[in-house]
Amino acid sequence: MVISQADWDALVAHAQDEAPNECCGYARMTDGRVDEVVRGENLRASPYGYEIDPRSLMAANDLDDEGHGVAIYHSHPRSAAEPSQTDINLAFYPHWRYVIVSLAGAPEVRAWRIEDGRVEEEDVVVD
Questions:
Q1: I need a surface site. Which of 3, 15, 23, 37 has the fewest CB within 10 A?
Q2: How far is Cα 31 from Cα 46, in angstroms, rounded to an integer?
Q3: What would you measure as the largest C-alpha separation in the chain, in angstroms?
Q4: Phi and psi angles of residue 13, each rounded to the nearest 5 degrees, phi first
Q5: CA dihedral defined by 27, 124, 95, 112, rounded to 10 degrees?
Q6: pTM score
Q7: pLDDT in tens for each of the 127 residues of the chain?
């Protein structure tokens, strides 16, 4: 996944703005490159999990239907940028990327593919 410095900064800023709760949102992609980051609302308003608001999820599905790549992102305010078991269980779109922003230490952004409980990391290149 390729992301501009500005979009990387937007992900981190969203995570910082929502801390200590998890943030969430989605990104529109073309050929593995993030074109736009859109903040969503975490309906759980919790530091321990997220539920993306229906409007954001519908918008992400519309992007998918239009042929764009989709990444769903959320933050881990106090833990590593690795999918939790809950994250894995809630990954219903195997062709989407799942991006996690960690604020445990220096901000970190990592991307994952999750399919049938299998987790595979993808490189994140800031360009």
A1: 37
A2: 33
A3: 37
A4: -65, -40
A5: -110
A6: 0.96
A7: 999 999 999 999 999 999 999 999 999 999 999 999 999 999 999 999 999 999 999 999 999 999 999 999 999 999 999 999 999 998 999 999 999 999 999 999 999 999 998 999 999 999 9
